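Subject: Sanity check before I submit

Could someone independently write out the structure tokens for this chain? I want to compare against mine line by line before I put it in a report. The sequence has 533 residues.
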Amino acid sequence: MKSLVLNLFLLFIGCLSCAAQSHEGEIEKLKLVLNDKAHFDTQKQKRIDQLKAALDRDPELDLNAKYLIYLKLYNEYKSFKYDKAFYYAHQLQKVSNQLKDPAKIAYAKLKLGFILLSSGMFKETFDSLSTLRIKHLPDSVKREYYFLTARTYYDLADFDKDDYYTRIYNTKASLYVDSAIRLCDIHAFDYTYYSGLKLIKAGDLNNAILKLKSLISSNKLSEHQYAIATSTLSDIYIQNNNPGIAISLLVEASIADIKSSTKEAAAMLNLAQLLNKRSNIQDAYLFIREAMDDAVYYGARQRKVQVSAILPVIASARILHEQEQKRMLFFYSSLLTLLSITIIVFAVIIYKQLKKIKASDKLIVRSNAELRLTIEKLNEAEKIKEEYIGYYLNVISDHMNKLEKIKFSIEQRLTTKKFDEIKILVGNINLKKEREELFSNFDKAFLKLFPNFVTEFNALFPAEHQVKLLQHQLLNTDLRIFALIRLGVNDTDKVARILEYSLSTIYNYRTRIKNKSNNPDGFEAAIMAIRAV
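---
Independent answer below. Compare away.
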């Protein structure tokens, strides 16, 4: 039975760590690059600042030079920050209109269309593209127009997810891709990438994989191009229900996005979703938060909506995962109480798991401290009871012996009718001495329990009001009053009867002594705080 439970427990721990171990090396690599994210963003910002400085240094730049700088700024911002890219797309339009160059005017409109599409504004993108008359434009402009139009239809098909309209949009997109690749160099990135994308949309996934793999293996790709290719290839493996390879590709795509400071990307969002499905909740939550930060920084509404739809799901899964871990740990900790030999091994495992999930609970620590204090007080009270029960049994025993002797003597003299001797015998009983002996025994028993009582009592008073005992004295009346209070006899009437004083006398004693102390209001509480040995 013990062996079975141990095996079940180890299986449970293995299951908990399985998802974390899957792709562990790749994910750790991504996390290391994430740590340098600010560095890559700073490098991009330096390039942007240099371009802006070039504009500021020479306000009289000719329009063609301005156009080139605006184009470079647009390219830096297009996947980095939406509102800035949108601004420089308009600046391109403004300068191209001033130049009255049809190719530059068309090119500027294409750049604006790309930004509108990136933000999910399909109607505005089509409106912008519809104003272009490309018949007499250079092939480079025509090619970009066809590719952008194709991508717009592809994205619209993905967005609608309607069987009827998706087929129409994909068909239109494929025609535009055909027109574009006819104008492409067969070795160009766009030629291979869009050929592969067309195969994906047509359902020919095997050939699409070959196309994209050949593209990825190329050494001529920029970080941004590499991210686009690997992210697109991962979609095929997700469709083929092969999330393992998809995760590896998305990790590579995410790393490339970080290095190129690309904020408008879906790789990390898709990676978070796959890790969440594979129960790697912690990493999924980390990456979905990064995806949200990028979406917010970029500023495009569509991307923020996409991430916002997934973030609560992963956050909820994270909470449920932690709760499930706590429930399972509680179950196995209960089993530990039934096992004698394996208790130490299980205790170590549970301790390590609990340490990762939750820090020590302050309330329990405080409750334990209060419990210990209560136990100490109970132990002290028990000790006081034991000492004083013994003390009073001895006192009562002594008095019983004395009474027995007196009774015997009186009975003898009554028998012989020696009444004068009885009178003498009664007269020899010294009540004052008996009372003093009673108090002396009380003092000895009390000081045995509270040997530091007199010292701690005096510490509550200024020097001139401290108690000074005679050489033979153990306690005096002042001390006995508060010794009884320390023992729990707080009723003034009871104290008066024990010490054989009037009620008013004891009350006056208590009031006078408290008023002489350093802290009258807290005096009796301080008396109760004096500890027994």
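---
OP: Matches mine. For the report I'm noting this point. The longest helix spans residues 362-416.
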